[in-house]
Amino acid sequence: MAKLSIDNIKIDAIYSCVPSQRIKTSDYALFSEAESLLFEKTTGIKERRVASKELTCSDLCFKSAENILTDLNVNKEEIDVLIFVSQSPDYFLPATAIILQERLGLSKNCMAFDINLGCSGYVYGLSVIASLMKNGLRKGLLLTGDKSTISTSFNDKSTYPLFGDAGSATLISYDEQADKMFFDLHSDGSGKDAIIIEYGHSRFPYNSFLDEEREYEPGVIRSRNHLALDGMKVFNFALKEVAKSITDCLDFASVKQEDVDYFVLHQANKLINDSVRKKMKLTEDKFPMSIGEYGNTSSASIPLTICVALQEKIKNQQLTMLFRGFGVGLSWANVLLKVGPIKVKIVEYD
Amino acid sequence: MNMNIQELLDHIEVEFDEIEKGTLHANSSIRDMEGWSSMHALILIALVDNHYDVLLTGEELKNALTVQDLFDVISKRKA
Asked: Could you tell me if A236 lies within 8 Å of chain B, comparing CB atoms?
């Protein structure tokens, strides 16, 4: 059972970076007015940020990290570990984290590697970096995010209007006064087809399996080089596993639901988060959201939501929070932790 | 839990803006609703989960042609 309680680790800052280009749901040419309104009501997405062709997820993460290092006047020699969590790396190889180590001017003594996870990636990444650092590494950077808009077909109504691009950076430090973090991590590979880009890696390499777009169902026209999403399966998975595992994580941490200030859930779909909230009989203000203005931003959604919705609170006080990532894999993870007061910020970059 | 179909009809009418109040009946076909899409299916799954604590599978929803069918599936799962 992957339950971890980790001492001596503190979050010092959470920054997010988004492209400035805003795309409104109502501007999606394939939606009728009624479809657009229904989509907004169900998913909560009114607009999202979309990166230009040249901009990558690592650029957005770089900008987040660069701003943290400058604003907090961090000694770069003290960054002992950098982890990049993304499913849209710069290259097939080398790992993007190593490129970012050099680009950020970090020491060659800094360990750097990538983790290939999507919507569960922030919590997973936090568990890995915290586990590594608890034995005395001084500071670490957890960079998470995706340029998901590069993977979707314009002709697929089930994916194209869902995703926004974003990157994030979280500065973490070793601190013997820090409160414990409680992690609860899960995987279920039987759901691998629920969210998948079939072609492009070694099972079906691009050079031998270029694929034409075809209609899978009305409104779902894509190739196998594009992201495919079985909305119903993902929705069922989220409702089945989310509320239950939140309760499990609270039990593990011996924390009562009413003692949690905020539940920061991955922003996949407003309907999912509302359903979980109703099951837990909690009010909307306990579940901060960013999906309305940014869409589903994959592994950047939790840090982005904190930057968007909790900026004023978290800069002045310590908050008890439960972070919850879930999605592609299938993979899901919770962490119960105390964060703050810390600096958070959103930057734009093109 | 004592279930009645009128309660389910009321919940669906409240949730679906497209359905005029009082026009939905036990033998109404859900999917024949104007503009029915996969989004409506998700709303229906969430509605049933929220009110009846039953998580319908895609297959169960596909096989439920009328509100009565849906009611029967929920009742069976609750039994």
From this structure: yes
B41 to A158: CB separation less than 8 angstroms, yes or no:
no
Chain B residue with minimum CA distance to A232: B58
Contact A34 B57 (CB under 8 A): no
Amino acid at A344: V
Residue pair A50/A23 in contact by the 8 Å Cβ criterion: yes
- The residue of A36, A230, A232, A234 whose CB has the most chain B CBs within 10 angstroms, and thus the best one to mutate to test that interface, is A232
Partner residues linked to A113 by β-bridges = A83
A106 token code pair: 């970090």
Mean pLDDT in consecutive groups of 10 residues from the start of chain A, 350 residues: 95 98 97 93 97 97 98 98 98 97 98 98 98 95 98 95 98 97 97 94 79 89 92 89 87 96 96 92 96 98 98 96 96 97 96
Question: Residues 6 or more apart from A218 whose CB is under 8 A from it?
Answer: none
C-alpha to C-alpha distance for B37 and B33, rounded to whole angstroms: 9
Hey, what are A50's tokens? 């979309």
Is A80 within 8 Å of A171 (Cβ atoms)? no
Give the Cα separation of A246 and A243 in Å (integer): 5
Q: 3-state SS of chain A: helix, strand, coil percent to 5?
A: 35, 30, 35
User: Hey, is the C-beta of A275 within 8 angstroms of any chain B C-beta?
Assistant: yes
Rounded to a whole number of angstroms, the CA Rg of chain A reads: 19
Kindly report, residue by residue over B17-47, the tens digit of the pLDDT: 888 888 889 998 888 777 788 888 899 999 9
Interface confidence (ipTM) of the complex: 0.86
Q: Which of A158, A240, A279 sits opposite B38 (nearest CB)?
A: A158
Chain B contact for A239 (CB, 8 A cutoff) = yes
B contact test, residue of A35, A157, A159, A239 with most B CBs within 10 A = A239
